[in-house]
# Entry
Amino acid sequence: MVGILSVGASFARVSSVIEHRSQSSNNARKVAGEFGYVHLRDQDNWYARAASTLEYQRSFRANRLAQSLFGCYVNNCGQLRIQGSAIQGDARDPNALLADYFYLPTDYDSVVSVKPVISDLIFDFNLYVGFNCRCLENAYVRIYSPLVRSKWLLNMKECIRDAGTNPYEPGYFMPCEMGRDEMNLDFCDYISGGAPFTQCATITNGGRDEAPDVLDVGDELATTNFRGLDYNRASCCDSLTATTLADLRMELGWNFLNKENGHLGANFQVAFPTGTRPNAQYLFNPVVGNGKHWEVGGGVTAHVILWQCGDFEKSCSLNFDGNFTYLFDNHEQRTYDLKGKELSRYMLAQRVGRPFAISEGVMATSDDEGETFSVPCGQFKYEFSPVANLTTLDIRVKGTVQADMALWLNYTNNNLSVDLGYNFWLRSCDRIRVDEACGACAPECANLCDQASKDTWVLKGTAQVYGFAQGRDLFDQDCNPNYAVALSTSQTGTGRGIGATITNGAPNGIDNPALAWGNLNGNELDREPLFAAPQDGEQVSTSNSPIYLRCQDIDICARNKGTSNKIWTNLQWTWDLDRDCQPLRCKPFLGLGAEIEFGKTDADCNECTSISSVSCPCPCDEIPPVTTCTPCEESCLQVAVSQWGLWLKGGMNFE
# Structure
């Protein structure tokens, strides 16, 4: 009856969101080719530089992205194993996800290749205006914002080794047998939101005091409801795209030291959120911008001439441009795991609650002799749901700090300019607060933090949910002619056991086990033993006190941060025109640039020891190697994207 207990930091958390760097926060692209045309001195009144950049960015290190999403269940080859509970012994991969949770057969066996790719097409406009009039000497303003088309492809391909033929026996999901044709086709079917539909029903007796021998008018039929994924879904084959402006940024600056051989200045910055707002509908959802955060902060710019020849026809300089901003609170939607249960968002929960149907009252014994009886606090209520539907929250991401710093060398030879630089980006660990509106829950108040969901959901694991009173010829609707009684089982786990996991049912069985009896006629003294099978087998056990999932069991402390290191270069040519663009002189320019960025991720299993050494062929050719992974013990995960980019930058200098 208590919430599950965290097992400390002995498990590796899975990221609730990919910390994607805003496409507008790219100092390398912003400053490329600018030396000699910004932060000028001795100009009349004002000068300007207008630049447009067309860039293509694409992520790499797909394994690290996959492991951020699925943990070390993804092996070094980017493969995820799916196996049913009937596959045991040497044939079972200890890292395989349990197919039973995905409404797949117990003998199902497949390998899923996961190779996520993020690609961005960016058109960036950047306007810099400097002032040298008396009242605004050495001041400047800069405005820039990129238009982005972001394409996110999970690139999930499933290779089915055995589609499975095993039905689910009566009692596991329903009173009836669940045939293969009633289940999901494959894992891709499940993760895209698919769920079974069946007509098998359970008699609830319409509230009458006596159990019927036949199905009469007034009896109620409860059809089992198999819910599919509402959140953290994935499209196995199709990409998701978003097209919009990333953040609109503005800088107001002043160069308080501006000499012939260098300058030092500072600026005030603000970012207006114009991008997309993160939501949890899809696991790999496209993000444009900084997540709809307002940003306020400042920056520092500087350069020093290291060497020059003549009147700056040839020079070499060291340059710095750093932005430091505070991201204000903003609300977004995230899906979490349960504490101590990595990837439990894809486990299966069942609804357990009151009221009891009178004909289905369950008695649970606390001893083997059947002398001490107690009524459990709930009973299976004909509904299954992925845990993700219950752990998706509307949250407020509280203030984080972002730094974007570029340090580069510039070599200028008349009209030719070459940049070679380094860029460091950091976004500090986010701070999470659950929204108070609507009982701290997601839209329509459907999660564990909603008061209406209190003491309602438990983890199913591999326990059956029905017991059978044998010898009763009750009804036959593709069901065995025996009386099925909903149980109160749970495999949530307590302090003595971890309960069910994403790879298997609870090793210690059901929570608080006790033999199950049926109070079939509404008479407390009229009890019948309930069996695991309709016609034979042993007396089935149920949970005397099922362990409910609570709001405090959600691992909301799984927070993220991002860090990356980048090297970049730019080659630019500037033309000197004979004519002037009154009242200024025009100098058009065109440049080519490239960058490669290495994002840091904590959910990186590439350093794990591979027990079997194999290459990465088609998943159907080789069983993926089993890995042993050292769990991450940090409370804030590093999750940043590694990517490369190529750009074409052109525009006009006005002097």
